[in-house]
Specification:
The chain is built from 4 helices and 3 strands. It is an alpha+beta fold.
């Protein structure tokens, strides 16, 4: 009994989708997908992602957003579009610039934050 189960994010196989590996009916690992800039998990980096961060920023009490403001560790990691370890207005700007073709978001480097419990 070794199995691997793949579960979508609710909107696709983007940020928040995950793989679970089980051996003898016991979960041995769980890996979450992170697509930098894709906050809602639909695999696209677009205005809906920027809007989600803008709404979270309006309801947040600080200049930097927290994981609680965004909803999960995977989404928080994805929101750090400039890979500086924090989520703020610079990340919103980076996402907007990405989908308007003024900039790109690197998918091959990790942010300074650590995802432990999505």
């Amino acid at each position: 009994g070794t199995t691997v189960t793949i579960t979508g994010s609710g909107r696709g196989m983007g940020t928040g989708a995950y793989f679970i590996g089980t051996v003898e009916n016991k979960e041995r690992f769980r890996y979450y997908a992170v697509v930098y800039g894709d906050i809602n998990g639909d695999t696209r980096i677009d205005g809906t992602d920027a809007s989600a961060l803008e709404i979270a920023a309006m309801t947040s009490s600080g200049e930097e957003l927290t994981q609680a403001d965004i909803g999960s560790a995977a989404k928080f990691e994805a929101a750090d579009a400039n890979h500086d370890g924090k989520v703020d207005n610079l990340d919103i700007e980076k996402i907007v610039n990405h989908y308007t073709y003024a900039d790109t978001i690197s998918q091959d480097k990790h942010s300074k934050s650590v995802v432990v419990n999505p």
